[in-house]
């Protein structure tokens, strides 16, 4: 029997997601189906797929899959998009809390932009002149010159598939400070296995490395798909009260046969 589902498409600074209201738990969590829905030629096309489900203790639960069809760790832009989706579904009015794979998140919608509280970060590992940290997903951060012209796919793919990271995978961020208050970040994403237009946990990781040791609590972040802002308080290598802010929009909705 053919199974037709309703879906919504969201994007947050060009990081795009198929969004499904799965409060009735009817969506088949099958790797091949999810990969096909995310395929840009044979499906809807997206960097990932997100299910909104019920949760006993918070407003909703976020379940995130990369475009390769595998369930993955936290997605910052996806988190901002599911907040916009929950608002669209009338699940909350101005502030919300939800549960994701990395724990509890708070969020609010301010003048149309979504502010998402990320988990605390207590460790930044230095690897030669590069950095590794987990902002809900694992990230490698490398500062480069002329990031606009940088070979992100080639170098990101090489680092992600190096012996250290091959099995678990890692997201690779190339970062250039463009002023005292702004960085430009380009990211090669694990599970998409390509550069995306924006990666929220990657932007957060890059911002924390940039802010480390500076007497600053916020940084503007330029990505290929637009602009984000990260706020954080620091104490040595520990960061808390971390917020990721930026646009999250519904692009279209439709029905598709699985
Ligand atoms: N696009 C994301 C990150 C999604 C998870 C990542 N691909 C992984 O598997 O770690 C974001 O906005 O944070």
UniProtKB/TrEMBL annotation:
InterPro entries: DAP_epimerase_AS, DAP_epimerase_DapF. The keyword Disulfide bond does not apply. Substrate binds at residues 15, 66, 76-77, 171, 189-190, 200-201. GO terms for biological process: lysine biosynthetic process via diaminopimelate. Pfam families: DAP_epimerase. Pathway: Amino-acid biosynthesis; L-lysine biosynthesis via DAP pathway; DL-2,6-diaminopimelate from LL-2,6-diaminopimelate: step 1/1. One of its GO terms (molecular function) is diaminopimelate epimerase activity. Catalyzes the stereoinversion of LL-2,6-diaminopimelate (L,L-DAP) to meso-diaminopimelate (meso-DAP), a precursor of L-lysine and an essential component of the bacterial peptidoglycan. Homodimer. This is Diaminopimelate epimerase. The gene is dapF.
């Amino acid at each position: 029997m053919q199974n037709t589902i309703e879906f919504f498409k969201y994007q947050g600074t060009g990081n795009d997601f198929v969004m499904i209201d799965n409060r009735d738990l009817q969506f088949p969590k099958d790797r091949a189906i999810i990969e096909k829905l995310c395929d840009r030629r044979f499906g809807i096309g997206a960097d990932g797929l997100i299910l909104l489900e019920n949760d006993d203790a918070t407003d909703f639960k976020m379940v995130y899959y990369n475009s390769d069809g595998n369930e993955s760790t936290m997605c910052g832009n996806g988190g901002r998009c599911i907040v916009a989706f929950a608002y669209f579904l009338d699940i909350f009015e101005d502030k919300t809390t939800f549960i994701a794979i990395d724990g509890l998140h708070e969020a609010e919608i301010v003048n149309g932009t979504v502010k998402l509280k990320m988990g605390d970060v207590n460790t930044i590992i230095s690897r030669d002149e590069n950095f590794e940290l987990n902002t809900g997903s694992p990230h490698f951060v490398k500062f480069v010159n002329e990031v606009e012209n940088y070979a992100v796919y080639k170098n990101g793919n090489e680092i992600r598939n190096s012996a250290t990271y091959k099995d678990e995978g890692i997201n690779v961020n190339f970062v250039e400070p463009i002023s005292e208050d702004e960085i430009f970040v380009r990211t090669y994403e694990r599970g998409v296995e390509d550069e995306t237009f924006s990666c929220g946990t990657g932007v957060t990781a890059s911002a924390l490395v940039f802010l480390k040791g500076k007497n600053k609590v916020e940084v503007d972040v330029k990505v290929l798909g637009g602009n984000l802002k990260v706020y954080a308080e620091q104490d040595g290598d520990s960061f808390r009260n971390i917020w990721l802010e930026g646009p999250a929009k519904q692009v279209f909705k439709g029905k598709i046969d699985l």
